[in-house]
Design goal:
The chain is α/β, with parallel strands linked by helices and 290 residues long. It has helices at residues 2-28, 33-44, 57-68, 90-93, 106-117, 143-170, 192-212, 233-237, 239-248, 257-269; strands spanning 48-52, 72-77, 96-100, 123-128, 174-179, 217-224, 279-282. β1, α3 and β2 form a beta-alpha-beta unit. The structure holds NADP nicotinamide-adenine-dinucleotide phosphate.
Length: 290
């Protein structure tokens, strides 16, 4: 009990310090008022972040990392499944909430975000992670497949950003992390649709960052290199490809979902009020390797 009281005392004092800094920064007209106000809010109530495709792979790791850091996480998944929770204690696991939602269904996505935003603390952020990879020789790649990749990886990202907008504004601002790919700046054989869709994610991120900056909304495009998930399990399982890849990556290995998750979580938890619209590559140096 004594420990709990001390903890809550520390939290209250920290919140009071932030409030004091907030008031003085506002008086001085400093630009970081909004960021500090978000952090002060974090001290008072669990903030809610929606994560798409949170049932497996990178999305699951992001949802788990955010829940471990005290966020309430709306897991928007096609099946309504939650991510595996063995890494979490019961309290953190209870902060994961499942919402069945195909990201290409705008009304389902809007309904899920509205429900999440109705909880105390409102909606603080969104992670557009869901994505698909279809590839093949471009000369015979079906245009319908090209459109399918664009629909899931790019159009749905725009739709979810729009659906989140009113809730983030109502909450005094918020953060949107889009998961792009380092393929947005490569010329990768047989991956035209995927690369085009991820380049669109970078463009959506930059455009909305500029348009919504005055509304307190900041956006980031986290662009991983190869990360070991179901998406590339077959490719990474081929010894010759794996050997070639490890030679191309200066850090000599593919990434891990947890490494992407820690970067995404840092964008929500660190005090980075001057950062928006950027693409942040997390690829072990592969895309800058000569
Ligand atoms: N792995 C990599 O090397 C890599 C590199 C760069 C970028 N990325 C990006 O990282 C993100 C996550 O990829 P991953 O590697 O974790 O892939 P993954 O293991 O294949 O997981 C993809 C996730 O997206 C979900 N999803 C696909 N279409 C959906 C839809 N219409 N509605 C809702 N959810 C949908 C899947 O749900 P279901 O379980 O229902 O299919 C799954 O949860 C993607 O945007 C991907 O492009 C991955």
């Amino acid at each position: 009990m004594l420990k709990e009281n001390c903890l809550s005392d520390v939290k209250n004092r920290t919140a009071a310090t932030i409030d004091r800094r907030l008031r003085s920064s506002a008086a001085l007209g400093l630009g970081y008022t909004l960021s500090l106000s978000r952090k002060a809010g974090l001290m008072r109530a669990a903030k809610t972040i929606a994560v798409t495709g949170a049932n497996r792979g990178i999305g699951a790791a992001i949802a788990v990392e955010l829940a471990a850091r005290g966020y309430r996480v709306g897991c928007l998944t096609r099946s309504g499944a939650l991510p595996p929770t063995e890494a979490l204690n019961d309290e953190a696991a209870s902060r994961l909430i499942a919402y069945p939602c195909d990201v290409t269904d705008e009304s389902a996505a809007a309904a899920a975000l509205a429900e999440l935003a109705a909880a105390p603390g409102g909606l603080a952020g969104l992670v557009n992670n869901a994505g698909i990879l279809l590839h093949g020789r471009s000369e015979s790649f079906a245009t319908a497949d090209f459109q399918q990749v664009m629909t899931v990886n790019a159009t749905a990202v725009f739709g979810l950003c729009k659906a989140a907008f009113p809730h983030l504004v109502a909450n005094g601002g918020g953060d949107i992390v889009n998961i792009g790919s380092f393929f947005d700046r490569l010329g990768a054989r047989q991956h035209t649709a995927y690369a085009a869709s991820k380049a669109a994610v970078g463009a959506i991120t930059r455009s909305l960052a500029v348009e919504w900056a005055s509304r307190g909304i900041r956006l980031y495009n986290v662009a991983p290199g190869y990360v070991a998930t179901d998406m590339n399990r077959d490719a990474l399982g081929e010894p010759r490809f794996r050997q070639w890849l490890e030679g191309r990556i200066p850090l000599r290995r593919p990434g891990r979902p947890e490494e992407v998750a820690r970067l995404v979580a840092a964008l929500f938890t660190e005090d980075l009020p001057f950062l928006t619209g950027e693409t942040i590559y997390l690829d072990g140096g592969q895309s800058i390797n000569q």
